[in-house]
Amino acid sequence: METPDADNVVSSTDGDKDKLDDNAVLSSTPFEFEASRPSVFWASGDNPYENTRQVLSHIDLSPSKSKRVLLKPNVGRNAQLGTGVTTHPEVVAAAIDVFREAGADVAVGESPITGVAALEAFETGGITAVAKERKCPLIDMDVRRYVTVDIPDGVAIKSLKVCREVAEYDIVVSIPVMKTHMHTGVTLSVKNMKGCLWRRSKVDLHMLPELSGCDEKPLDIAIADMSSVLRPHLSIIDGTVGMEGLGPSAGKPKALGVVLAGVDAFATDSLACSMMGISGRDIPHLRVGSERGYGVIALDSIEAYPRNWKDVQDPFAPPPDELSIEFSGYTVLDIQSCSACQSTLLMFLKKYGKQLRDGVPDDKEIVIAIGKGHEKLPDGTLCVGNCTARHKGCGYFVSGCPPVASEILSAFNI
Ligand code: SF4
């Protein structure tokens, strides 16, 4: 295989298969672990590179020798280092080095949220620099055509459009940032695999109809469904600087200075949740996935090493149930939006919220709607994003998918 420089996109021809004959993506992990009592390793300190090397030193990576390893950090957005939005480049750098030392052929790939270009996000977040230094290929996984992967056990979804590289590489390593998430409670190594879904098909998981007889949100069930075919072979969670509150993009950075690693993605996520002061059982996609047997989340069945993980526990502020609580003077109606619209709106409210509020009489309520699930909206609603287009007659409308934050202000003529 041709190994491009870090600043080149892999652009080999796509082959002719658009559908996998078998669920090759679901190959079981080559790394040894005890399924009934999985180990999760963690390290803390102010050097993310060393923390990552240390946690990986506990795992026998020799099965990756001569294999193609795809590192999948969370670089779904254009965000600067230190904001807690994207994976720390030094964590990625250490993973590249350690897998190479084990004899693997390593690349780093991402398919960001709608409206973000992967290579730009790699550059902004500092990953291009560490990859270039190591001549490690960076892959925009949206360039090539997807493969369709069936989900035999799927409840909310029966198939996925998956970035082709995920099916081609032998080993996929999920390297998320430790963050709370407005829609899914947290986003860790299981949820991070959603960034392996091709282009806009990620949005489909936010647009699913309610499931009859099921109390969970369809999005949570869909992520559990996804984890039946897209479970990482190894997880490395970057808690160097995570995010609390309005995650995944508009919360506050939270410096924890930890890195975790484990073969069981659910166990690794569950221990990370506990460090964040959250029970894995309160995260629906983790609970549902573990009930189906995809991994272990019960803390008393997880071998944390070292055992004194509570010493680094530092509760993260949860995401608010209602955005209106965070932004007084606004009522935000959010039904079946996706992260892209939500991020745009949060950015807008953070940057221009006061300006907009000051430009409108105090007694006028500002109602903003995002998402496609609204039956009826009050007169005067500011409808944001193409999903609300059918309600544009009832007030103001900002088109785009996702829309541009600054255009929300001009819709109000301010
Ligand atoms: S309009 Fe907004 S909520 Fe709808 S799909 Fe686009 S980004 Fe997502």
Q: Could you characterize the architecture of this molecule?
A:
The chain is an alpha/beta fold and 414 residues long. It folds into two domains: 24-312, LarA, N-terminal domain (Rossmann fold), CATH 3.40.50; 323-411, no CATH class. Helix content is 26%, strand content 21%. The longest helix is centred in the last third of the chain and has 20 residues, at 339-358. Residues 1-16 have low confidence and may be disordered. The structure holds iron/sulfur cluster. The site of iron/sulfur cluster has 14 residues, from α11.
Question: Which descriptors apply to this entry?
Answer:
414 residues; alpha/beta; Rossmann fold; 4-stranded parallel sheet; 16 strands; 26% helix; 21% strand; disordered N terminus; binds iron/sulfur cluster
